# Entry
Amino acid sequence: MRRRHLALLAGAVTASLTLAVVNTSASASATAPAAAARPGAAPAAAQAAFVHPGVLVSRAQLDFARAKVQAGAQPWKSAYDQMLASPYASLSRTPAPRAVVECGSYSNPNYGCTDEREDAIAAYTDALAWYITQDSRYAQKAIQIMDAWSGVITSHTNSNAPLQTGWAGSVWPRAAEIIRYTYTGWSGADRFATMLRTVYLPQVINGSNSNGNWELSMMEAAVGISVYLDDRTSYDKAVTRYLNRVQAYVYLDTDGALPKTVPGSGLDTQAEIVKYWQGQSTFVTGLTQETCRDFTHTGYGISAISHVAETSRIQGQDLYPQVGERLRQALGFQSKYERGAAVPSWLCGGSLNLGLGPVTEVGYNAMHNRLGYAMTNTEALTEQQRPAGSNNLFVAWETLTHGDNPA
# Structure
């Protein structure tokens, strides 16, 4: 491993602070995607009309998963069985909507927070089950859950409201897209759109300067909601914020001595940036802004990065040339240590809080299977975790939907 010790400029922080920029690749391939060196390039425009269903999973991807399940092929059949056996797929589930969902820090207080998130995942689970089985009972259950919430909820409050809205708002459009565009008979689709437009989108569209996983999840929600609403203006605004946040969330050695920052973040000095990166002053390729916080929150951020890139690809806008290398390196770096590699003393004080979660399938499928880049550690972790279940927040059933899916 090659290190370049870079002395920080005097006056920015104390002269004793030294940043070591370590050039290291978290995967077996040192070759980056061809366009990844252009992080500031303008994103290619999405096609004029939105594609439906088109939030996270496309019709072609659904067809692939359905065919594999029907053929009893692995790992899709076991992933489907896992999903169907979960409480989220229960046809006796009773939704628990609230007019005001109040979520404090770490969901304390928790007035409807868990109910909202889990009902959204249940609706998405039922939508997937409907598509694969063509059993209308699952479509009707998804509709029941979505109608229950769209008829009641008016707002989110307290300190975690933006993040809560981002999590639930990421999942609702996935369910709604599948039902609205593959099932006949949802009379409440327009009311559901009104809910997303008035209750969810205003809470997430302007982003956040909190830890990066917040804004990434919020932009995932904004992008998915915009697709469902056919709202090009909000979609473009969310993609722009997303691209700024991704390059400020995952470090590459080409960024220079310090990580990039989001315009307007208020991070104007090296000392402020180091503090924001959890006190980590040695920056290496694949490190994220929350690696030294814990891998669970890091996983939230990585997952949202992959989800937005996947939705945009379905919409005819390929963001992987801009975010792919950061996604690949973040997955590889975290996967290496999640699998048990020794933690060096310069990394987070020599100690990591692991627990990445079931977040690797979408990014691994995109970067390894579709684009052909070696991802040794990510591949091993992905296969070890299959079938990937749900994190009970906004990630669910991604071995089923994206595992080795060429569509």
